[in-house]
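To the structural biology subgroup,

Please find below the input and predicted structure for LRRNT domain-containing protein, which we are adding to the shared reference set this quarter. The sequence is reproduced verbatim from the submission form. If anyone notices a discrepancy with their own records, reply to this email rather than editing the shared folder directly, so we keep one authoritative version.
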Amino acid sequence: MKTSLYHLILTLLGPHCCLSLLVQPCPKTCTCDQDPTYSSGLRVNCSNADLLEVPWDIPVGTTTLLLRDNHFEILHNSSFASLTQLRTLDLSFNRIAHMEENAFEGLETLLLLDLRRNVLTLSRKTYLERVFQPLASLKTLFLNRNSYASAYRREPPVLTSQSHGEDDESVPRSTGNVPKSSPLSLKAADGKSVESESETLRLNGTEINTSVTGHVKDKLELSNADLTYPDDALSHLHNLVELHLDGLKDTAFGPGFLNLSNLTVLSLQGFCHLGALDNTTFLNTPHVQQLNLSECDIIEVTRDAFSTLTDLRELDLSYNQKLGLDRLGDAFEGLSKTRLERLVIDAMVPIRNLGIIVNSTHLRHFKDLNHLKVVQARFNRIEAFDDGVLCTELPPNLKHVYLNANMLVLASYVNDLKCLESLELLHINGFDTYWTPPLRPPDPEDVRTRTKSCAKQVPGNGGTAEEAAA
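Predicted structure (tokenized):
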């Protein structure tokens, strides 16, 4: 039966398609089809298959291998050694806590590796120095949402990767509604909440609930002092372009990052708690052009913190409400040394704050950002601008400004808009995508009573709507 099926596929798709499928059958726990990205190879999907180990019988012609939502705890040596044509490897949403030094042997052509949502704590004990050495062609690496991961549990959660909207990297968090939703409440396979049989772990000043065994528990023995960016391991990835990491408090990127001369996209969006940024934080990542520090619990930015990122083009600082708009001026001073063209500062102000009148103190050094063309500052409770600020404190080449979902009112600052000679686009629509919740939930019965009363009452004469109509 299988042979007849293979002949049928060959007839339909042509004699040169999917030859590897004919040579080696698809593993019984997986599905195999033609890779839509690399048409000469196979896409093998073994996701959500309750696997404990990487299948040994993956077809050698596989170019995309999806292994997410399984129960791997360790990647053994030579787990993928026969897959020399592999381009994309997805191991996200597992329990991986340890990778043996030769785990990725044979993957010289791999372009994308996704290890999100595992238990790979950022440390040199977890990332052995030569673990990534075989990945000579790797361009994109996802390691975020590991350091304080929800993977510290005995049973896999009912929620799968398809349910976690926050892990969809194609949808920036800064485009969501404010306030952002509360953390997901994970439930184990038996329906019990993770917290019901948990222990407490404190990592880098953050408390999380855990319930662990085996390799996962070994990783929890790491102290705060062990947490660091594994620059020794990453230094072998000479062709890496895009890196997604968790953010560690008051920790600089080590000298190994200097070897990553092609690294232009760096995102710390995930489990991120940066604290303070200074002129050593990004000293060894001078080639970064796109930097995402949204939701990173930044408290302070020194005046020269960004001055070493001379090639920087795009920066996202959204949701850093402890930093706020008041302290952004210090960051602007360092950014004046860069080539920043796009700045995103959504929701820098807590939702309960009073409205803000933007003044020259908020915008100190902002006018020195000579390359800046686009600013997005939505959800910041901005009501107005001081007189003259728009004429004296804005960058000279600013073209697009997005102030959606603020609280702007008509005031004298409107007259200063004539000073913005380079401006091409200004978005100031207000409350269509924004909702300020009440101080307390209204009583449903009270709402019904008031609504009924208002419907019957006619203002001015005390009569009813029916009487007025008559």
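Summary notes: Helices lie at 2-13, 19-23, 214-219, 231-234, 328-335, 389-392, 444-456, 465-469. The longest strand covers residues 62-66.

Regards,
Lab coordination
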